[in-house]
Fold:
Amino acid sequence: MTWSQAGRVLRRELHAARVRGEPGLVAITGLGFGNAAQVPVLRTHVESWLAGPEARQLGVLGFQRVHRGGALEIKLIAPVDRSRVDREWDE
Structure:
């Protein structure tokens, strides 16, 4: 999976989790053993994106590595107004 594909899926899932009122989710990034250098390329991109302004707009409060570093546990801010979450997504 490319970062472009993963980014679209991650944005969609973050929005859906927030609409459902979930406190967070787990994003599987893998350990990086599938590439020649055996380093976690996707996780690096995801962590950088999660620390940025677009992720904060989608309600990301924070994240941490879990499952030996092959996944990220993402904490979400609970939406007070669900219609506001839908409007944010449409912008």
Q: What stands out?
A: The beta strands are 24-28, 60-66, 71-76. The chain has a mean pLDDT of 85. The CA atoms of residues 19 and 86 lie 8 Å apart.
